[in-house]
Amino acid sequence: MAVMGLTEWAYTLSESLLSDPLPRRWAHSLGVAKRARSLSPILGDNAELLEAAAVLHDIGYSPAIAATGFHPLDGARFLRDQEGADERVVRLVAHHSCALLEAEERGLRQELEGEFELERSDLADALLYCDMTTTPDGTQTTPVERLDEIVQRYGPDTIVGRFIQRAAPDIHAAAGRVEKRLAQASARRQPM
Predict the structure, then answer these.
(1) What's the rounded mean pLDDT across residues 67-77?
(2) CA distance 152 to 104
């Protein structure tokens, strides 16, 4: 029997947890993974790692594994405890898209920080960029449009609404860093 690669395993697992109960969330996850593939010029050896984390980042929403109601923590715990997943993938899922700020809103920051170390900032930025430039339906968008959509969908005074408004400066800064790296990589590939 052939050994399943990291991304193949990640897609299979994510699909099994999201496609039937949460088809829109599955479409978003596929879009985020597609966006991650587009960042391969700046990811080098971490391209497969990021794509796996991208397709898995929202599995904590699955009714089959949701425990706390905070999807980054639920997803990371499942990946660690049930799947024995790559530690770096687990950390990226645990901390994706400014999760510490949302954990704070939910009274779960100490749990998240205590259980899962942060992953390298360039990879955390890349995953955040992929998530915040992908609509709930999996199509490409801008961070400004994505943040507006989240606030409208959840409401400005909800936990998610408050968190995303607090996280907006960090999200825009991370997106800017990724776009700068992409522009530099593109410039290096251009013939003189």
Answers:
(1) 97
(2) 21
| Cβ neighbour number for residue 135 with a 10 Å cutoff | 15
pLDDT in tens, 106-121: 999 999 999 999 999 9
Give kind and range of the element (H or E) at residue 28.
helix 23-38
Query: pLDDT by residue (tens digit) across 75-87?
Result: 999 999 999 999 9
Terminal-residue alpha carbon distance, the chain: 48
Q: Which two tokens stand for residue 99?
A: 């999760």
Structure token pair of residue 180: 């700068």
Of 78, 90, 101, 85, the residue nearest 127 (C-alpha):
90
Token pair for 40: 């391969």
- Say how far apart CA 28 and CA 127 lie, in whole Å: 13
**Which residue type, as a one-letter code, is found at position 162?**
R
